[in-house]
Amino acid sequence: MALSTYLIYFAILLIVPLWASGRVKKTYKKYSKVENSSFMTGAQVARKILDDNGLYDVKIEEIKGVMTDHYDPRVKTVRLSTENYHGHSQAAAAIAAHEVGHAIQDAEAYAFLRFRHALVPVANLGSNFSFILIIAGFILYSTQLFLAGIIFMAFAVLFQLVTLPVEFNASTRAMDQLVSSGVIRSNEERETKKVLNAAALTYVAAAVVALLELLRFVLMFVGMNED
């Protein structure tokens, strides 16, 4: 692979995640300062949507940090960062609804979510051991170790790819719930979508980077066999 190709490759690996992260932060910062029309906190939005869908057993908890919001299926809990838990902003409402979207997916046994959960053990193994095997295979010039590393990495990449439909589906559910519950008005839909789409970019960027890494090592493996 030519030097210029390597430079372009590493530039993409660096720029894509930074661009996605910057876009998320900029969008979140902008709409975290704009109050939603219902003046509901993120916690109230989450509770309303959960109750509207009969998910009374799902808890809502505050968690420290910035944009640390997530849904924990193990204990059926939506966790919202302090600013979104107490905030009345459009960003807080959008993110709260998105995390509740995951709770609804869980309750409905959404196929991609179940598949992602099933991939967690092998994806963790892939993340932890793939590079070790690949480096060992490269140093020892062992195609078997190198291939094993690629296979482990492939599971981690598959996890990233399966995450995409899970996240996009959660955002679609969030929009539907926010509108049908009356939390936002029609003139707020565009801004809410911007928050949800910006957040989705981080997952797209992660998937692109993971795919490029996998492709690079596959090409290296092909080169080792040709030699």
Give the key terms.
227 residues; 3 strands; 7 helices; elongated; 3-stranded mixed sheet
Q: Which helices and strands, and how do they pair?
A:
Blueprint: H1 3-31, H2 42-52, E1 59-63, E2 70-72, E3 77-81, H3 82-86, H4 90-107, H5 111-140, H6 143-180, H7 189-226
Parallel strand pairs: 1-3
Antiparallel strand pairs: 2-3
Helix pairs in contact: 1-7, 2-4, 4-6, 4-7, 5-6, 6-7
Q: Indicate the radius of gyration in whole angstroms.
A: 20 Å
Series of secondary-structure elements, N-terminal to C-terminal? HHEEEHHHHH
Shape: elongated
Q: What is the count of DSSP helices, taking H or I runs of 4+ residues?
A: 7
Mean pLDDT: 92
Q: How many structural units, i.e. domains? A: 1
Write down how many β-strands occur, each being a DSSP E stretch of 2 or more residues. 3
Q: Structural class per helix/strand content?
A: mainly alpha
- Tell me the major beta sheet: 3 strands, mixed
**Ends: how far apart?**
15 Å
Order of strands across the main sheet: 1-3-2
Helix content bin:
over 70%
Proportion in β-strands: 5-15%
Low-confidence stretches: none
